[in-house]
Each structure stands twice: as C-alpha cells, then as structure tokens.
C-alpha cells in the first residue's frame, strides 16, 4: 500500500495558503502577457505614439521652464513704438499691438493653458473613476442616483455650462476654470467607468475571488478597477486637449483667465483687432494651441488602438 507521506506536506502547504494570497499568485502568473504588456508592445511600434510623446514632453518642459526658451520678459518692455512691428533680432515673431514680444508671450502662455487642462483632467478622472466604479460594482440605489445626476450634467454642454458659471464668478484663476469645467465633464468618465466595471465584475476572476472569501471592496480595488480602467485612460488623454481648447474658448470670449494672466486664449482674443494688419499675432498662439491639442489627440488614438482587444486580435 503506497504511503501518503510524500503528499502530506503539499496538502498542508495548500491549507496554509490564504485565499487572498492564492488570488494574488494567480494574478502574478498572468502579468507576463497582461493587457498592459500587450499595449506597450503595440505602442512601441507606432510612430504616432513617439511623435505625440515627444511633442507633449516638449510642451510640459516649456510650461515648467519657460525661461529656457526665452529671456525676454513677456509683460515688460512693451513699447508702443514697437506696435505691430515684424520680426527682428531678438524678437523672432514680431510684436503685438501693445508692443509686446509675441514669441515670449506664446512661450509663457503655455503654463496657464496646460495647467487648466491638466488640473481639469486629474479632477474629472479621479472623481469619475471613483463614482463610476462604486456605482457599477455595487449598483442599487447609489447607482440609480449617480446615473440620474450624471444625466442632468451630461445634458449641459461643458463649454456652455462653463460660460454661465464663469460669468457670475468673481475669481477667475486656472484652478477656478478647472473646477468649473470638471463640474460638467465628470459624467462622461463616470459613465465609461461604470460600463467597464459592469462588464468586468462578471468575469471568472471575480467569481473565483468571491468563492475564496475576498471582500467586495478588495475585489473592486485589486482586480476590477485595474482591468476596467483602460477605456478611461484613453478618454482622459483626449480630454486633456479638449480642456485646453475649452480654456482658450473661455478666455477668447473674455470670461476665462483675466488679461494679466498670459494664455493662448487671451492672446488670440487680443489679436482680433490686428488680424488684418498683423495676422501673425493671432497665427502663432493659434498654432501652439492646435499643436498641443493635436499631440494629445494623437496620443489618445494610439493608446486606444493599443488597448482595443479587437485591434490586437487583427494584428
């Protein structure tokens, strides 16, 4: 009769494993070819990803360290004698109607525009992910309330709602504009996250975790959210460019950032009167705005294609 002596230690070791450790080990074995690994493999071969990444990196460096790219103070040495003058030595893009350096204002205006876009994206993404994940996973009354509130805000266009609020707010700073844009933009992220969580919560790994006794909240944080957040990343990347355009729109209409804060929207607004006699005053900040938005749209498209299972299957 064969002895059970050799198999007993393995049985005891199996009993010693906790349910959470078993699930975590199962996750670790899947990391070799996870969704993120496949996405990175796809992104590395896309020229659009590298082009957009380089552009975004350059934009961030300009926003953080504008002094590297220009030594001319943007709000000083504005002489009316230089009004609408063309390019000259030390002033590559000429002067505005007030005699200010166009290139210096364009470089320093990057900071405010990017700050608004980045803050709004972070606020909307964090709030939308939390609310959408809780609503999608737990459902019930909370899900119904969040869905109805989201429908109300979703029915109001973001820019239109921001115009109404900004027209009555006395304080117009980058933080204020980011918060106002976030009020009307969060339902999109919340809806996408909710739908993604609804699909992920019926997966086999969730069923296995429940059978092993893992708490619902731990399942949501450790397993559901990481597997459901891919569509949110795509939308958040594209939304950053959208928020930058929204800030420029508000500033162009005169209800965004005040004139003393340099931004591309303010420069485009002030260039309206000189568009016929000095069009470069409007063209250059418009090009900077367009290139920034294009970079984030290109990155969003590349990430979307990399995270799309059907796209990976076709490859």
Briefly, what is this?
It is found in: Cell membrane. The protein contains 14 helices and no strands.
Can you walk through the features of this model?
There is one protein chain. The protein has 315 residues and is an all-alpha fold. It contains 14 helices and no strands. The protein has helices at 8-16, 19-30, 35-44, 47-64, 102-138, 140-154, 158-166, 174-200, 204-211, 216-228, 230-252, 264-270, 280-307, 309-314. Helix 8 (174-200) packs antiparallel against helix 11. The longest helix is centred in the middle third of the chain and has 37 residues, at 102-138. The relative contact order is 0.14.
Which key terms come to mind for this protein?
315 residues; mainly alpha; 14 helices; elongated; cell membrane; BP-dependent_transpt_permease; MetI-like_sf; transmembrane; transmembrane helix
Query: In percent, how much strand structure appears in the residues?
Result: under 5%
Label the structural class. Answer: mainly alpha
N/C terminus separation? 55 Å
SSE order, as H and E? HHHHHHHHHHHHHH
- Put simply, the count of helices is 14
Biggest sheet record: none
The unreliable regions are 1-23, 25-29
Mean pLDDT: 82
How many strands appear in the DSSP assignment? 0
Shape: elongated
- Helical percentage: over 70%
Subcellular location: Cell membrane
Membrane topology: Multi-pass membrane protein
Protein name: ABC transporter permease
Family: Belongs to the binding-protein-dependent transport system permease family.
């Amino acid at each position: 009769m064969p002895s059970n002596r050799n198999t007993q230690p393995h049985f005891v070791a199996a009993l010693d494993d906790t349910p959470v450790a078993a699930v975590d080990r199962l996750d670790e074995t899947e990391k070799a070819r996870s969704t993120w690994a496949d996405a990175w493999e796809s992104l590395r071969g896309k020229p659009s990803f590298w082009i957009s990444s380089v552009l975004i990196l350059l934009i961030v460096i300009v926003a953080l360290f504008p002094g590297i790219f220009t030594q001319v103070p943007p709000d000083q040495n504005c002489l009316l004698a230089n009004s609408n003058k063309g390019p000259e030595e030390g002033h590559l893009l000429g002067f505005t109607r007030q005699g200010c350096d166009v290139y210096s204002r364009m470089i320093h205006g990057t900071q405010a525009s990017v700050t608004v876009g980045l803050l709004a994206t972070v606020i909307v993404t964090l709030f939308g992910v939390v609310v959408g994940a809780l609503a999608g996973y737990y459902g019930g009354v909370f899900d119904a309330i969040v869905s109805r509130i989201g429908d109300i805000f979703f029915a109001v266009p973001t820019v239109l709602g921001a115009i109404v609020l900004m027209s009555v707010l006395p304080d117009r700073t980058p933080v204020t504009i980011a918060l106002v844009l976030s009020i009307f933009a969060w339902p999109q992220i919340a809806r996408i996250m909710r739908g993604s969580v609804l699909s992920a919560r019926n997966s086999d790994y969730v069923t296995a975790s429940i059978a092993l006794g893992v708490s619902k909240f731990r399942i949501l944080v450790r397993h559901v959210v990481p597997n459901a957040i891919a569509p949110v990343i795509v939308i958040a990347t594209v939304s950053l460019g959208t928020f930058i355009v929204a800030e420029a729109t508000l500033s162009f209409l005169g209800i965004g950032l005040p004139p003393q804060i340099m931004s591309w929207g303010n420069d485009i607004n002030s260039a309206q009167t000189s568009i016929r006699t000095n069009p470069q005053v409007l063209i250059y900040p418009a090009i900077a705005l367009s290139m920034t938005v294009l970079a984030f749209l290109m990155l969003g498209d590349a990430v979307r294609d990399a995270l799309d299972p059907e796209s990976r299957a076709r490859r």
